Amino acid sequence: MVRRSFLFYGCMYGQRKQVAKVNMKTRIKWLGIGFVSLLIISLCFSLIHAQGSTNQANLIGLQHQVPWFSFLLFLINASMVEEFLYREILWNLVRKLDIRVALTSVLFALVHHPGTILAWCLYVSLGMFLGMVRYKSDLRGSIGLHLVWNLSVYVLFFL
Question: How far is the CA of 141 from the CAs of 23, 77, 97, 157, in angstroms?
């Protein structure tokens, strides 16, 4: 059963917009699909280009300067803030889906400071899959995927 509610987005649209509720099963399904997709993309890019990105180098430097718990909280906070900014605020400023995904993916990549073309492509791809999960489920789904991804990377590379 899909429950629909009406939200008013102020002056942004000047009209009411229908928003469908997403159930937990759908959210988890797309979180799984997104995680496997991110894993495959990252592995492919790692095989092509083993050198880490500027973002990874910055995170490694930060991780050595603060306690592990503070670093973990930083990663969790960054995941939620980025998703809210890109896949909620900016997402709702644009009506066309392809422009939404492209804009949020490029800005997501830009903020992660890709140092090479391959790193740029990696972060744009990650942003596109986060956008796909946002579209197929909701903001909670993309936040969940981003959290699971960052925590997985943390466990694999920083511990």
Answer: 10, 16, 17, 24
- DSSP summary character for residue 64: T
For 9, other C-beta atoms within 10 Å of its C-beta total 12
Name the phi and psi angles at 130, rounded to 5: -65, -40
Distance CA(127)–CA(87), nearest Å, equals 10
Q: What is the pLDDT of residues 19-67, one digit of tens each?
A: 568 889 999 999 999 999 999 998 888 888 666 666 666 677 777 788 8
Residue 138, CA distances (Å) to 26, 32, 116, 120, 159 in order? 10, 14, 31, 25, 31
Does this model's pTM top 0.90? My answer is: no
**Around 115, how many Cα atoms within 13 Å sit in the side-chain half-sphere?**
9
Long-range contacts of 59-65 (CB under 8 A, 24+ apart): 59/158, 60/158, 63/158
